[in-house]
Design a protein that fits this description.
The chain is an alpha/beta fold and 564 residues long. Helices cover 46% and strands 12% of the residues. The chain contains 23 helices and 17 strands. The chain has a 6-stranded parallel sheet with strand order 3-2-1-4-5-6. Strands 9-8-7-10-11-12 form a 6-stranded parallel sheet, with helices on both faces. Strands 16-15-17 form a 3-stranded antiparallel sheet. Helix 11 crosses helix 16 and helix 19 runs antiparallel to helix 21.
């Protein structure tokens, strides 16, 4: 069976993917800048730049968010119509066909979809970190939620796909043991990397020189650059990098400047970095730049000679900074870890530094401490990272080779830049997304008949008149005989008109009938009692059951009563 990535999108396919949008997930203008924010903003820009969509769809919780989405898309040069879906118009997703959510928690959207039928539209999510409890719980929910074969969770690397499969299969094992069940439906797990805008990282020789001047760096100084969150416990422990740079500078005889372009969560963490650098690489000048500022990132990328990121943390899944480094034409010295090994080719674009961790069975205590909330997520990542090693000697040798050869740096940088353009530019990645979405749509249309509608598709959100049907004395049925309380319909209408102006009544207007519908009902009852079903049978199909239900409200208002 061919993979979704091999699917050729029909030329006449009308791409109608709806973006589930909240501005927090698509902006880098935040004090706590995280990888998912960078990825979200970059994706939206890529989608607007390269999507074949004939019009745009967005799903929002807040109407203001729709305005923000529209402004963003318009600012990126798209003038197509934008269809806005809010909570009360969720059913319109049937017209779109695909809902894209920028996270792994698509199970909640599956439950929402179940109200309208599991084949109403496809769902597509994406992994970021899978180490925290929210993400891991989201993955386990993929099995028990009403997800279908025409849904997908994009895995950004082969490493994270393996992790996702481990969580899912462990949940399956549990459910089999608990319920003796073997009937499981799985979403697709295609591997599609994150993308970047490679042109953003192209710098001329003049820009390079200008960057080095602004950094006050002489031509003979080699700049090694780290870009990313500066968190030793939740991103990349810097000690191996410090140790390797110190030794490599000594062996090569080169003067080295390390730029750490990122941000520290607080002053104690910033001080921890300073103390470690002072101890482990005293001969290396270390410069800290706030990576949340775009101009700082640009200067750092333009001025650097070598990129380094020795990630050793389980919260990482893909790692966008090595791809950005390749686009900038920088040779990479990165750890052989998670998605890094998908992007950087050892000996071609740079070097993959070996890593090691304890074998299976030795981490149960760490998981237990996190599960029981003895440790926070940060401490869980930090404790785990403390037991993951990066080969410092290999890193030293890698740095020495690059420090000693401008030709090697240029050759590897050129290879990386071409790879970034060919494999990771959004103009390449967005078509892969749309190919996936097209295949999901095709699968949904061809296999939708296999779904079986159950009485209560979302058990935790049942019809309250079913869930609580043991509460009342009796029920309003089609056969219930109703009669006016007042002597004529006009008096009833006059009295009801006064009631509906009360705040305690008007708040529920979303579930109340119109005055014209009520008038029709009351006029029918003026000659005498009638069965409830008779009162609504001449109304349009779209309003019949709504108005029938509203008869209970007229009973509540004491406008009608049950005839005895």
């Amino acid at each position: 069976m061919s993979s979704f990535e091999d699917y050729l999108m029909p030329k006449d396919f009308d791409m109608r993917v709806c973006i589930n949008y909240h501005p927090e997930g698509y902006t880098t203008e935040a004090p706590r800048l995280m990888g998912r924010n960078v990825a979200g903003q970059s994706f939206l820009r890529g989608f607007a730049s390269y999507s074949r969509a004939k019009d745009f769809w967005v799903s929002v919780q807040d109407p203001e968010h729709a305005k923000m989405f529209t402004a963003t898309v318009r600012g990126l040069g798209r003038s197509e119509n934008i269809n806005v879906i809010k909570n009360d118009t969720t059913k319109k997703l049937c017209e779109a066909g695909i809902l894209y959510h920028s996270g792994p928690d698509i199970s909640k959207h599956a439950w929402r979809r179940s109200i309208f039928g599991d084949s109403g539209w496809s769902l597509c999510g994406i992994t970021h970190t899978t180490a925290n409890s929210y993400a891991m719980d989201s993955l386990t929910h993929l099995i028990s939620a009403p997800l279908q074969p025409w849904d997908a969770l994009i895995c950004t690397s082969n490493a994270v796909k393996d992790n996702v499969n481990k969580v899912i299969q462990s949940q399956v094992e549990y459910l089999k043991s608990r319920f003796n069940s073997n009937n499981f439906i799985f979403p697709e797990l295609p591997v599609i990397p994150l993308g970047i805008h490679t042109d953003d990282f192209v710098y001329s020789e003049q820009e390079r020189q200008a960057a080095r001047v602004s950094l006050e760096v002489e031509d003979n100084v080699l700049i090694v650059l780290f870009v990313g969150r500066l968190s030793f416990h939740a991103k990349a422990h810097p000690l191996a990098m410090y140790q390797a740079l110190e030794k490599a500078a000594t062996i090569s005889g080169k003067e080295v400047l390390l730029i750490e372009c990122g941000w520290h969560a607080n002053e104690p963490i910033a001080n921890a970095y300073k103390d470690a650098a002072k101890l482990a690489c005293p001969s290396i000048k270390v410069m800290n730049m706030d990576g949340r500022i775009a101009t700082n990132r640009q200067v750092a990328w333009a001025g650097a000679d070598v990129f380094c990121s020795l990630s050793d943390n389980i919260q990482e899944t893909f790692g966008i900074s090595p791809v950005e480094a390749m686009a900038a034409g920088l040779p990479c010295v990165v750890s052989d870890w998670d998605g890094y090994r998908d992007t950087v080719r050892d000996g071609v674009d740079g070097y993959l530094v070996p890593t090691s961790m304890p074998e299976e069975g030795l981490g149960a205590e760490l998981a237990e401490r996190y599960a029981l909330e003895v440790d926070s997520y940060d401490m869980y990542c930090g404790h785990t990272s403390s037991l993951i090693a990066v080969d410092v000697d290999f890193a030293v040798n890698s740095f020495v080779k690059l420090f000693n050869s401008l030709e090697l740096r240029k050759e590897m940088g050129a290879m990386g830049r071409q790879r970034a353009r060919d494999e990771y530019d959004w103009k390449v990645i967005i078509p892969r997304y749309e190919s996936l979405w097209a295949s999901l749509d095709e699968l949904r249309r061809s296999q939708s008949s296999i779904t079986k509608r159950v009485s209560h598709p979302w058990p935790a959100r049942m019809d309250p008149f079913h869930a609580f049907d043991n509460y009342p004395t009796s029920f309003l049925t089609q056969q219930s005989i109703l009669v006016l309380v007042d002597e004529d319909s006009q008096k009833a209408i006059d009295r009801l008109t006064k009631y509906v102006n009360l705040a305690m009544i008007n708040y529920a207007k979303a579930v109340l009938p119109s005055i014209s519908e009520v008038t029709e009902i009351l006029n029918k009852l003026e000659p005498g009692p009638l069965a409830a079903g008779e009162l609504v049978k001449h109304m349009s199909d779209g309003r019949q059951m709504f108005v029938f239900r509203s008869l209970s409200w007229l009973l509540k208002m004491n406008i009608l009563k049950v005839y005895k």
